[in-house]
Amino acid sequence: MDTVLVTGATGFVAGHCITELLEHGYRVRATVRDLSDAGRRAHLVDIANRLGGALEFTQADLTSDHGWEVAAKDCDHVLHVASPIPNGRKESEREMVEAAVEGTLRVLRAAAAATTVRRVVLTSSIVTINQGHDADRVFTEQDWSDPDRVSGYDRSKTLAEQAARRFVEAPGLGFDLVTLHPAMILGPVLHRQTNMSHEPAIRLLGRKVPGNLNVGWSTVDVRDLARAHRVALETPEAAGQRYIFAGEHFWMRDMAAVLAVEFGPRGFRVPLRVLPDWLVRVAALADPGIKRVVPALGKLERLSSAKAEAELGISLRPKRQSLVDTAESLLAHGVVTPPTR
After folding, report:
1. Any idea which residues carry the catalytic annotation?
2. Which pTM value belongs to this model?
């Protein structure tokens, strides 16, 4: 039974990766920032107990060298899932880039020091592929975003992947690298913690926006992505490869229409009108969440997951199902509360 180190255990994607690995008989060692905070990982303990899986936690933080060699010791594989995300603070870009790049290198150095690690799977993003380009076309794994033309999260993910690929060029390293590039990640949350990919559903169900923005995203279900992490560990031919996981573009107005049909009978008044772009830009002055999507107004995301489907055998479930399952989980965990009658 192989042991897999999963970084950022309490995160949305990492939780599903841990579940997937336990379901398939792997031992999992998972990193957390603070071992004393048992509440943040209680849902993972519950999952491991339900599955009868072998799960242990170790303390390590992307911003510090401490703990990483201990975390990677005797592991066979590493899923490096943890990454900083935008939080709206003015100073966050510099910190985000440093944490993403240096944090990734800390994980890789620890994997090298362990000598037992055979493969590292890095959770990257489509933003390392389709940003900073002038052409409107379908993007594939052959494409790279230009770090000089992007900023914030996009820049941090691009530079982190580039740093990782330079690192594994060293001879005699002992392990190879696979990078996965998901689009916006939908699917059920495992506990109350959410991230920016849940914002459209939260805002629409909670009527936190008066209408829809003229934006949309290519999407992937977190359960498909978790399976992809496991299959990427198990597929010898995946060594050195990049894989896009991105389904059809999903306009926010179409998300709203789905939620209105599914949750309208329960009393949710989902806004259906589309707000004019000028109004969205004004609202962005006071709302960091809206500000992040202003550059995407009216833009269509087009990416190909054909390589992942052909080489890893991963097919993506319908976007409608992913959105509805996301919303149901937000209700189940109390992130969104039912309307009062």
Report:
1. 157
2. 0.94
